[in-house]
Design brief:
31 helices; 4 domains; 827 residues; alpha/beta; 16% strand
C-alpha cells in the first residue's frame, strides 16, 4: 500500500484545495481552547469592518480588549447559538452592537455591505487540538471570522471507511468529557460547530449534534445513477471533490450559514402523555442545497414566466426545501436593485407547513411582516380580502390553501394594479386535493371553457386550464414540488429534455431537479414499504398450502384457514378480527410498544362500519382494551347511508342503528373533543387510525408501521402515496407490514416501478425456502436431532436446564467463532 493512499496525504490535499479557494491556513496554536474561538480572525474582522467599535473597546479595556470581546461573545454563543450570533451579532457594553459576519448583499450597488462581505475570513485548521489537557485532535476545524462552524474527520477507503470516522465522532468527540466532566464548547449542540463531517474519499456523512452513541449521521452525497453514494469522476478527482469544489468556495460556504441552517422545533409526546419540545439543527442535505441553488440561479437569469418541477421523493426534506426556495426568491434583485418577484405565493393543503415555513424563514431573516398566512383563524376579514391586501401590499411570502389559490390567480390575472408585479407560485403536491368552489368563480371570471366542474379540479388541472385558455400570465413563475408526478404534471411543469428544441414525443418534458425514491431508501430516509407488502390472497394461499401438504398439524390451523376462506368482501366484522389479531401478534410490540396502524377503507360508510366493528370487538375482548382507535372522514352520514344489504346476515347488533342517526368524526371520536386528529393520533393510547379518503396523502406519522387496505385504489399516484404513509423512519423501525385485501400486487408493483427503479415485491408463496434453510443448518453439523429434542424439553424448565440444553451446540460452535475472529483480525 503506497503512502499516497494514507489519510494524511488526503487531508493535506483537501487543505490545499481550500487554501487555493481563498481559505486561510491556520495552526492549532492560534486556537483558544477555553473560548473555542480563533482570536486572530475575530479581532481582524472587527478592526476591518467596525474600526470605531474596536477603537472604543480598546479605549475602555486596553490590552484586555480581545478577552473582553471573547468573553461577551462566548456568553452570546451559549445563549443564542452559533447560527443566530453569526446572523444577528451581539451587544457589548460601551460599544453597542457587534456584527460577526456579513451575508452577500441583495443589492450589488451597496458598497459598504460589499466591503464587509469581502472582509469575511474563512479559515481551515488542520489537526485542531481542542482539549486543554489532552491531545485530542480533529482532522480539520472550519471557522468563519474566528467562530467554529464545522469540523471534519477524514478517512480513506484504502485504510478505514467513513464508518470509522462516524465511530470516532461517537466514541471520542464527546460534548462532555467522561473523565473530567468538562463541557467541550466546540462540540456542544448549537453553541459550538454547526456541522460535523465524516469524510472518506468516496462518501460524506454529517451530523449537527454530537451525542455519543446516540449521534445520528445523515449522508451528504450527490447520488449515483438514482442510487445512494457518489459517482466516480472521469477526470480522476476524488468522488467527494464536490465538497471543496461546490460546497466550500467562500460564497457558497457563507450562503449556507446565512441562508440555509436553522433550528427545527417539534412537539413530541412520551408514553405518559407528557409533551416536550425537540430541537434539531437543520443543515441542508446535498440534494436540497443543489435544488435550491439551481432554481434560484435559473430564476435570476431568466426572470418570471418559467416553470420548475422538483421531483423529490418522500424523505427528501421537502418542507425545508420549500422554505429555502421561498426565502431566496424574495431576495432576488435585478442590477438596478428592483426585486425580480414582488411576492412568493406558497400553495399547500398541509397546515403543518405554515408553522414550519414561518419558523424556518424567521430564523433565517428576522424581518417583520415577511409572511402572511391566508385562510387561517387569525383575521375577521374574508380570505379574499386578506389575499387582496397582501398582494397589493407586496407582502413578500403569502401562504394560501389549495381552496384559496383560485382567488390568488384571479387577482393576478384580472387586477390591473398588479399587472406590473411579478409573482412566484410554489405548489406543494399540485396534483392532489381539489380547489373547491372558488375555482368555479375563477372559471366564470376568465371565461375558461373546462367541461368539468372546476370545484373538483386540482391546482395542476386549474393551471392547465389557464394555460390552454391562452391567459397564462407571463409575470408568474411556477415551482412545483412532488414525489409522484403524473404525465400531466410533467407536461405542465416539466422542461424539454433538450431545452434548445421544442417539446415533442422525441423530446418529452423532464423534471428540473430530481431526488429519487430509491436513493432516499438506500440513504435511510424512508423505508421500502414493498418489502412488507403481502396481498391477502398470498396470505390465504400460504396458509392453504401449509394445511394441504400437512406441513402444519392440528385442528386450530384448519379452523383459522376456514375463517379466512369465509371472509366476505363486505364482512367487516371478520376482517376486524383478522386485523386485530395480526396487529397484536406482529406489530403492537414494535417501537417499544408505540407502533401504530392505518386501515384504509373504501368509503365513508365503510369507515363508520369499521369503527363500530372495532369498538364492538375490543369491548368483547378485554385483552385488547388498551388499543384505542380513531376514525377519519369528512362531513357526516346518516344511519341509512351506513347500512348494507348484507347486514341482515350478521349475528349480533354491531350494525343495528337508527336510520336517522348521524355519524361524524366528532360523534365517533367522542374523547377527542374536536382536536386535530393528526395530533391526537400521536398520543400513545391511540394505535389504529381508520380512514376514508383522508390522511392517505400528506400525513406524516413516523410511528405508523402497519397498513390494512380494504379499498380498490384508483391509480398509480394514489397507490404510491397511500402506501408511502408507512415509509417514514423512527428509532427502531426497520420493517413495515401491508396487508392488502383488494388490490392486485402486479398493479401495486407497476405503480411503484414508475418512481422507484428498485421496486420489487418478494414472492412469499414458496414455502420450500424454509426447508432449504433447514438443510443448510443440518449440514453445518452444529446440532443433532437428539440435541433439538433435549432443548425442546429444557426450554420450559429451569434456567440451569435451559443452559444445559444449549451446551452441546455451544461446545461445537464456540471454537468456530473463535477461529472466525482470528481470521477477521488478521485480514
Amino acid at each position: 500500500m503506497t503512502e499516497a493512499h494514507h489519510e494524511k496525504p488526503f487531508e493535506n490535499y483537501v487543505v490545499e484545495k481550500l487554501v487555493a479557494q481563498g481559505w486561510l491556513l491556520g495552526d492549532t496554536s492560534g486556537y483558544d481552547k477555553d473560548y473555542a474561538l480563533y482570536p486572530e480572525d475575530l479581532v481582524a474582522w472587527l478592526k476591518d469592518t467596525q474600526p470605531a467599535k474596536w477603537d472604543r473597546l480598546v479605549a475602555l479595556n486596553g490590552e484586555k480588549a480581545p478577552n473582553v470581546l471573547m468573553d461577551r461573545l462566548e456568553k452570546a454563543l451559549e445563549k443564542q447559538g452559533t447560527i443566530q450570533v453569526l446572523r444577528r451579532g451581539f451587544d457589548i457594553a460601551g460599544c453597542g452592537h457587534i456584527d460577526v459576519s456579513e451575508a452577500a448583499p441583495e443589492d450589488q450597488r451597496n458598497k459598504d455591505v460589499l466591503h464587509r462581505y469581502a472582509s469575511n475570513r474563512l479559515r481551515v485548521v488542520p489537526q485542531l487540538r481542542y482539549h486543554p489537557s489532552k491531545e485530542y485532535a480533529i482532522d480539520l476545524g472550519l471557522f468563519i471570522n474566528g467562530i467554529p462552524v464545522g469540523t471534519v474527520e477524514i478517512k480513506t477507503d484504502f485504510t478505514q471507511s467513513a464508518a470509522a470516522a462516524i465511530e470516532q465522532y461517537k466514541q471520542d468527540r464527546l460534548p462532555v468529557d467522561l473523565q473530567t466532566k468538562r463541557t467541550e464548547p466546540l462540540l456542544t449542540f448549537k453553541r459550538g460547530a454547526v456541522v460535523h463531517f465524516a469524510m472518506s474519499d468516496s462518501v460524506i456523512w454529517m451530523t449537527t449534534k454530537l451525542a455519543g452513541d446516540n449521534t445520528f449521521f445523515l449522508p451528504f452525497n450527490k447520488g449515483k445513477d438514482g442510487h445512494a453514494g457518489n459517482p466516480a469522476r472521469a477526470d480522476g478527482e476524488y468522488p467527494v471533490a464536490y465538497f471543496w469544489e461546490q460546497i466550500c468556495p467562500q460564497d457558497a460556504w457563507l450562503r449556507i450559514f446565512h441562508s440555509f441552517v436553522y433550528v427545527e422545533k417539534k412537539e413530541v409526546v412520551d408514553l405518559k402523555g407528557a409533551w416536550t419540545t425537540k430541537e434539531t439543527q437543520i443543515f441542508p442535505r446535498f440534494h436540497q442545497w443543489d435544488a435550491v441553488n439551481a432554481m434560484i440561479a435559473d430564476a435570476a437569469q431568466n426572470g418570471p414566466g418559467q416553470a420548475y418541477l422538483c421531483e423529490h421523493s418522500a424523505g427528501s426534506g421537502k418542507t425545508s426545501t420549500i422554505a429555502w426556495t421561498a426565502h431566496d426568491l424574495i431576495k432576488l434583485r435585478r442590477d438596478n436593485g428592483t426585486p425580480i418577484f414582488n411576492s412568493v405565493i406558497v400553495v399547500t393543503d398541509r397546515t403543518v407547513l405554515d408553522g414550519q415555513l414561518q419558523d424556518a424563514i424567521q430564523q433565517i431573516d428576522h424581518q417583520a411582516g415577511l409572511i402572511a398566512a391566508i385562510d387561517r383563524d387569525t383575521s375577521s376579514k374574508s380570505k379574499s380580502q386578506q389575499l387582496t391586501e397582501a398582494l397589493l401590499g407586496g407582502v413578500p411570502i403569502i401562504i394560501v390553501t389549495i381552496q384559496t389559490f383560485p382567488y390568488a390567480m384571479e387577482a393576478i390575472l384580472t387586477d390591473k394594479s398588479l399587472k406590473d408585479s411579478n409573482f412566484a407560485v410554489i405548489i406543494d403536491e399540485a396534483h392532489t386535493s381539489q380547489t373547491g368552489t372558488t375555482a368555479s368563480k375563477l372559471q366564470a371570471t376568465l371565461a375558461l371553457s373546462s367541461k368539468a366542474g372546476m370545484e373538483k379540479m386540482t391546482v395542476e388541472e386549474l393551471l392547465t386550464e389557464i394555460q390552454n385558455s391562452r391567459v397564462r400570465p407571463k409575470n408568474v413563475s411556477q415551482f412545483a414540488f412532488t414525489a409522484t408526478p403524473k404525465h400531466s404534471t410533467m407536461m405542465l411543469f416539466g422542461r424539454p429534455a433538450d431545452p434548445s428544441k421544442p417539446a415533442s414525443k422525441e423530446n418529452l418534458p423532464v423534471s428540473f431537479h430530481k431526488y429519487p425514491m430509491r436513493q432516499a431508501i438506500e440513504e435511510g430516509f424512508i423505508l421500502d414499504v414493498l418489502e412488507g407488502y403481502i396481498p391477502y390472497k398470498t396470505a390465504f394461499n400460504l396458509g392453504k398450502e401449509m394445511v394441504d401438504t400437512k406441513r402444519v398439524n392440528g385442528k386450530a390451523a384448519k379452523r383459522a384457514l376456514a375463517k379466512w376462506m369465509t371472509l366476505h368482501p363486505t364482512n367487516v366484522v371478520q376482517k376486524v378480527q383478522f386485523i386485530m389479531e395480526h396487529f397484536v401478534k406482529n406489530v403492537a410490540h414494535l417501537l417499544d410498544g408505540k407502533a401504530k396502524a392505518m386501515v384504509v377503507t373504501s368509503s365513508r360508510a365503510a369507515a363508520v362500519r369499521y369503527k363500530k366493528a372495532f369498538d364492538s370487538f375490543i369491548e368483547t375482548h378485554p385483552q385488547y382494551k388498551g388499543i384505542h382507535t380513531l376514525v377519519a372522514f369528512s362531513g357526516q352520514l346518516t344511519g341509512k347511508e351506513v347500512m348494507h344489504f348484507d347486514d341482515a346476515q350478521l349475528k349480533g347488533d354491531t350494525f343495528v342503528v337508527d336510520e336517522d342517526a348521524v355519524f361524524s368524526e366528532d360523534t365517533m371520536n367522542p374523547a377527542v373533543k374536536g382536536q386535530d386528529l393528526r395530533i391526537v393520533f400521536d398520543r400513545p393510547e391511540y394505535r389504529v387510525m381508520l380512514v376514508a379518503n383522508k390522511f392517505q396523502t400528506g400525513f406524516d406519522q413516523p410511528k405508523l408501521v402497519a397498513m390494512y387496505i380494504d379499498k380498490k385504489i384508483a391509480n398509480d399516484v394514489e397507490i404510491v402515496q397511500t402506501l408511502s404513509r408507512l415509509n417514514r423512519t423512527f428509532p427502531g423501525k426497520d420493517r413495515t407490514f401491508v396487508i392488502d385485501f383488494v388490490n392486485d400486487p402486479e398493479t401495486v408493483l407497476s405503480a411503484f416501478a414508475s418512481y422507484d427503479a428498485g421496486a420489487a415485491i418478494e414472492d412469499m408463496q414458496d414455502l420450500n425456502v424454509i426447508y432449504e434453510i433447514r438443510d443448510r443448518l443440518d449440514d453445518a453439523g452444529v446440532y443433532s436431532v437428539a440435541n433439538l429434542e433435549a432443548f425442546k424439553t429444557a426450554r420450559f424448565k429451569t434456567a440451569q436446564a435451559f443452559a444445559g440444553g444449549t451446551e452441546p451446540s455451544t461446545r461445537i460452535c464456540s471454537p468456530r467463532r473463535k477461529h472466525q475472529r482470528i481470521i477477521s483480525t488478521r485480514y
